[in-house]
Amino acid sequence: MTPRRFSPVLLLLAVLTACQPSYHLAQQAANRIQVDSTTATADPGMASFLQPYRQKLDQTMNAVLARSTGPIEKSQPNGPLNDILTDALLQQASQKYGKPIDVSHLNFGGIRNNLPAGNITIGSIYEVMPFDNKLVILTLTGDMLMQLLNHFAEGNKLVVGGLRATIHDGKVQSATLTNGRAIQPSETYTVAMSDYVAEGGDNAGFLKNPVKREDINYLIRDALIDYFRQRGQSGQPITPTTDGRITIE
């Protein structure tokens, strides 16, 4: 019988593997360590390093875009903030798209703050819209548009521009574009909205298969900043109003 010949490398691996100790968890413990401005010690060197960046950021965020004669607040089913934000989105989306958009939509929960009376700054818009959601243009049939409206009408969370709607028991009874056209099931309409909702956010999964989707390289927040800057350049202050575009019966 011919004797077996073993590779020295394989022998070494076998020895090392056999010598490996085994471990098991004997116990575990956890401590809560609170870190805040009262317990953390400031690092003067780091503070000095960040100071120029902090000054630049403060200058940017404190830049005044426009002025308002009063607080601009969101509300259900209507609110001055609801109206001005969706109107702003509709205007800016149409400019970027190069042709009129029929409807604009914002999810109520995504509007995170109100706008103050007096100076409206870039920082104010960041507080209202802190997310980096992008503008998306969806082409929807009338049936799909009504599905969108009904989905957000439940709970009085419908925030739209470009149309008026009447709601009864959480269902849209009628919806008409601001140009007077009634929504027809088989016709198509363009809707400006955030990529979050277009991708099924807020349980709007039915929007994942539109007639057409066009992504615009434009943040919703930047659209709002541009709109309020334009309003400020007009020299006229903003007076908070709502046109009652959503009616609850």
TrEMBL record:
<protein>
    <submittedName>
        <fullName>5'-Nucleotidase domain protein</fullName>
    </submittedName>
</protein>
<feature type="signal peptide">
    <location>
        <begin position="1"/>
        <end position="26"/>
    </location>
</feature>
<dbReference type="InterPro" id="IPR008334">
    <property type="entry name" value="5'-Nucleotdase_C"/>
</dbReference>
<keyword id="KW-0732">Signal</keyword>
<dbReference type="GO" id="GO:0016787">
    <property type="term" value="F:hydrolase activity"/>
</dbReference>
<dbReference type="InterPro" id="IPR036907">
    <property type="entry name" value="5'-Nucleotdase_C_sf"/>
</dbReference>
<dbReference type="InterPro" id="IPR006179">
    <property type="entry name" value="5_nucleotidase/apyrase"/>
</dbReference>
<feature type="domain" description="5'-Nucleotidase C-terminal">
    <location>
        <begin position="76"/>
        <end position="204"/>
    </location>
</feature>
<dbReference type="Pfam" id="PF02872">
    <property type="entry name" value="5_nucleotid_C"/>
</dbReference>
<dbReference type="GO" id="GO:0009166">
    <property type="term" value="P:nucleotide catabolic process"/>
</dbReference>
